[in-house]
Predict the structure.
Amino acid sequence: MNVAETARFACQGVTANKPRSALTTLGVLIGVAAVIILVAVGTGSSRSVSEQISKLGSNTLTVQASSTAAGGRGGPGGGFAPFAGPASSSSGSTTSQTATKTRTPQITLSDARAIATSKQAPDVLGVAPVVNASSVTATYDGASHSVGTTTGTTPAYLLIDNSSVHYGSAFTDADYTEHRRVVLVGQTVAQDLVGDDVEELVGRTISLNGISFRVDGILTSKGSTGPQDQDDRVVAPLTAVQDTLSGYGALSTISIKATSADTVTLAEGEVESILDARHQVTSTDRDYSVSSASSILSAATSSNRTFTVLLGAVAAISLLVGGIGVMNIMLVTVTERTREIGIKKALGAGRGDIVGQFLTEAVLLSLFGGVVGVVVGLVGSRFTIVGVQPTVAPYSVGLAFGVAILIGLFFGLYPANRAASLRPIDALRYE
Amino acid sequence: MSTAHPVISMHAITKVYGTGDTEVRALDGVDLAVEGGEHVAIMGASGSGKSTLMNIIGCLDVGTSGRYLLDGIDVRRVAESRLALVRNRKIGFVFQSFNLVARTSALRNVELPLAYAGVPRGERRERAIEALTRVGLADRLEHQPSELSGGQQQRVALARAIVTRPALLLADEPTGALDSHSTADVLALFDELAAEGRTILVITHESDVAEHAQRIVRMADGRIVSDAQSVQVPA
């Protein structure tokens, strides 16, 4: 009995009860489609995160105070240093180096200034100190908006952050030194306050937590791919933010731009040696961390991989359930066709012929489910799912399809063997 | 068809079901020899052991003890897995309930044993058409069993039984499910096949069916009680 003959018998078996075969393949179909779509969602979301991070600029560095003491407990980026109170008795700078050992880890304006003015940092293009104020509410003419990120910084920040002003103009060095209460508003904030005609806001005065700021400009939209809206922010001079919103204390971060993407590593080393000298620490007990876009990217990538594997695992379970469905139907089929099996055995069908026929039927069911599942998966991946544009990973298509076939083989084996081991005399008597 | 040795040679065949108190001796020492070209009927009431005998002759079952040579092959020495091959090569079955494969055309039903025997497609088709023509169903090749009458279905089964040119044509109550008209058709076919020199063994409880055979073997309680040439030898 050749392959074509076996396949023909199997086809007859599968088409004999069409609704049942269709429902069985549905299980496999859903499993395969789920694997493809969910892995595509995972891949798509990690791609969008990568894109976002690369938008930060591949040549920017961020210096953060790190809560890890000597020995390095915890991971990098362990959080911001608590703000020292505005009435701090010390000068607020690190010039009093005698207190190093007991000092709360923090980075200061003097650190930023030191990096900016140092001759030992030829690969650093720009430096901007950053203070973030939390829970700021912007109000204007009755409308209010809770601002996602409130940044106090210097005019150089816009260049380092790859940001630009769309309407109006950026604040100036004079605004900074004279503590002028001016602000640049992100698209999301502006839209919430005045509606779609955001330009109207330029020159008006809004209030941030009750303190009046004049809107100098509207920032160009950075888009909001992924979970975080990058346009939900306001940017103001560091001096004004410290005066009114954050208090005088440590910086949240220092943003640094290297001269080019190729010199990021060099710049990182230079920044570290300047800060190590100032903080009197070595690479083993640093109280700050320098992260680049690429280091954030690798952290994000690994967390995204976990996410993708998890999604894939859930889908794989549904594929497995589909396989059990195939086995169930094949067992029913064997029982139903006991007589047919008996006839065929009486006519000389060997064990291999019967196993071949039922195994082929099982594989046909899962193969059909696999093919349609791949189509559904590919079509489904074209739609945006929970804000993520899925990216089909070719390996997931191959994997899902291959596993579907294997499932047919594996789960078909038991029913096929059962059919083949029926004794012809019993099978013929079966009614 | 072999002439060197008998097609069936049975000696002291027994078949015992169960053990101890529940022991049933379905066959209790059966000796039977059938030569090539004979047309034999095995008769007996239900429970006489004729069905068990037929299963053993058909290699669907194996006796508890005794020796059975089918066309010179000692069936007990053949492994279970190879019995299918023996059935395929040596025996053509005709069952009371036709036992055609449903949803499968007459032609493909007849091709089936040839497919298991590994006969190439072209030759298979040719031989199947020839066999169906032989039973007068050349115009029903593509009909499915459900589209055929009982008599026609049994003729398809007959075509399927003879298509492999078996040593033995084994029929179990071949007319049991047929009306008198179809019965006459099928019996006429058996007569023709017997006249062609085929070895035919029919199991039946109807004497008018048995009368078509040259030799009638009667069974009771698992034994052969008479074995005689039929009074009316068909022309």
Notes: The mean pLDDT of chain A is 82. The radius of gyration of chain A is 33 Å.
